[in-house]
Amino acid sequence: MAKDWIFKSKVYAMAAEQLRETGKWAGIDKNIIARLSMPKRSTIVSLPVKMDDGHVEEFIGYRVQHQITCGPGKGGLRYHPDVDLGEVVALAMWMSWKCGLMKLPFGGAKGGVNCDPGRLSAQETERLTRRLTYELLPVIGPQMDVMAPDVGTNAQTMAWIMDTYSQNLGVSTPEIVTGKPVEIGGIEGRRGATGYGVAVCVREMCEREGLKLKGQRVVVQGFGNVGSYAAENLWEWGAKIIGIADVTGGYIETKGFDINDAIQYVKKNGTLKGYACDKTVSSQEILELPCDILVPAALQRVITSKNAENLDCKFIGEGANGPTTPAADEILEKKGIKVVPDILCNAGGVTVSYFEWVQGIQRDFWTRAQVNQRLNDKMCSTFATVYDTAVEQSVTMRRAALGLGIKAVAKQKEARGLYP
Ligand code: NAD
Asked: Is residue 151 within 6 Å of ligand 1 at its C-beta?
């Protein structure tokens, strides 16, 4: 009988299919694949929160440690109305492959709360976050599981987690989270690191594909942490950002947006709603806008068998986790649209999180220049490994990246054996 019914969700099915197919291709022991297809530990907590009007609302929170064979669990915390256990398990799995690919000494983890952060006040969000941290105390720790921001959470969320954890231990513990404010031990440049890494991958891809980045027409779906920094870097390096989108819709400017201006607009207004442009479309329609480079940087499963045929770009740089379904991958491969896969393209965030964790443990603080140099080097060398592997083995970059990442985790599982 299938034992994975409890994680049932489209995102989990997608992550499990990637593992199965890549495992077969890479010749990984099927016992190890079976072990890796299930998360080691899934914690579900109920979170009673006193709302501003005095009533108590129950939220459901999740923390999944897919594996902690390779080190402490590492992964973001998501606040979104669609969060469920299956989604969190899939995201935790992808963290395992990402850390394996980037050679970071972490396992894979992820967390989430099913809520609509846009409808919570700052005080309600703080109470929710502190209660979540308290409920998760038995399963988190700098050597057990380290959280970071993801969709709907930010540096402030991490500061509340760090404070709640530290209060309970009686010891200031900055290394319990990454992506926290610099004032309390955060690292310079973490906020922009994922978007910067996406931009570096796009730049490297252009070079390998014989394209000049300057003047390439780029569309970015998602204008939060990842999307806005990716757009900003690409724009500064000369690309023309002709389309941007967030939860309020898609915005098109044929001559290219001034990305600084768009970022300032979002800072002031919260979203892109009402931002001046040539034309507005839905945030899903913007994916089909003819362009050179498409950067999905919002949520998973936005490029599917339904729209893949209509995409009109030279390549895709995946800022989001899991934006392309396996069925869409096949269509894109036939169309000749290459994909720089998520576990490589958005790995800048976890890479700088690793720097921040080391910095926290050692209490030895790095400059922004040191961080950026090390990040750039790591992204470029891993990009080259993935690109070269894909060419040598005549496979897609996704298959190459997943193969490298899964193999790295499988080797450690194999070396440690099965206890008892
Ligand atoms: P965020 O909350 O800062 O931003 C999310 C953006 O997506 C917002 O602009 C939001 O309006 C937009 N959005 C939400 N629903 C949308 C929809 N249906 N259509 C279009 N846009 C929509 O989140 P983030 O941290 O930028 O994360 C974005 C993606 O990147 C996620 O898949 C996340 O898992 C992944 N990621 C984030 C990090 C990180 O360091 N923050 C690291 C690696 C991967």
From this structure: yes
